[in-house]
Amino acid sequence: MSASAVYILDAKGKVLICRNYRGDIDMSVIDKFMPLLMEKEEEGNTCPIIQHGEIAYIFTKYSNLHLVATSKKNANVTMVFSFLHKLVQIFLEYFKELEEESIRDNFVLIYELLDEVMDFGFPQTTDSKILQEYVTQDSQKLEIAPRPPPAVTNAVSWRSEKIKYRKNEVFLDVIESVNLLVSANGNVLRSEIVGAIKMRVYLSGMPELRLGLNDKVLFESTGNIYSFQEGKVKPLIWVESVIERHAHSRVEYMIKAKSQFKRRSTANNVEIVIPVPADADSPKFKTTVGSCKYAPETNAVVWTIKSFPGGKEYLMRAHFGLPSVEAEDIEGRPPINVKFEIPYFTVSGIQVRYLKIIEKSGYQALPWVRYITQNGDYQLRTQ
Q1: What is the CATH number of the domain that holds 310?
Q2: Which of 98, 195, 358, 380 has a CA positioned 20 to 30 A from the CA of residue 145?
């Protein structure tokens, strides 16, 4: 990585705190950062890297603070960004909030953390749970354990030694979120799956886990996030809307919802959120299934269907009075949002073939696998 120094700047670019790790650059080079940044922003350049002479400024912004790493070597920029974001996470877990005041109130602790997380420009322990075992703060008194916990020097730093559970289990969740954007004329503008495999492990000792999957997906370098190879997917819940507006009188909605997945699956806790005019009143609803509720605080009708089996189609009608509106700006109509969760189902077709648990003592362990498909950013524009 080879970061020479790390700085935290306030909104005006003033250095709140910094740490020189390599001593190979003049620390005053940070004075040029804010003018260079303003110049780049005026040009419309939003790249989070600024090269000036032989110095590279690699930065991220959190709230009104800038976290900046400087380097004069050919640094691994991706690792630098990862380190800066990890630093934000560490500070948030220590201080609950990251702002100028919390920086000033915790100078001593922050310097100690900066010493622990990096050595001569190379990241060291960045797991906040491990750091909190030996870098602690009781009121205004900084306490540092006489020796770091064994986890710091383990081959696997994030797991403590001699862990033992009465019942050895592994819970594996395959979660897929469907993002969808449909135009007012019914064309699918965006359709994608974002998948994640999450594990909760209650296993004694230090076992080896081997996970086998089918070949439906392609894993990215992050390890637990995957992408669907076949691209666009069929919308799981399709919503059509017919809206009739009568000036100075009323507005009527006819909403049709159809589940476009296999009949043996069921979507739970479906919410179809339909936007309505801000001054609508006197709501009346009629639906073939579920219940409707007017939410004036969000200017919307929420149609809730607790259980929505595959291959079904339902209708909902809503009527509102409009006491004052003459015409509505068509361009400003918010889209319909849909929320849902389908257990025991994946859109991509990914399956866990096996989960092998190998441990030298040979104990028996139970693996539990659960599949869930849910909405992500799921929007259908209205006519």
Answers
A1: 2.60.40.1170
A2: 98
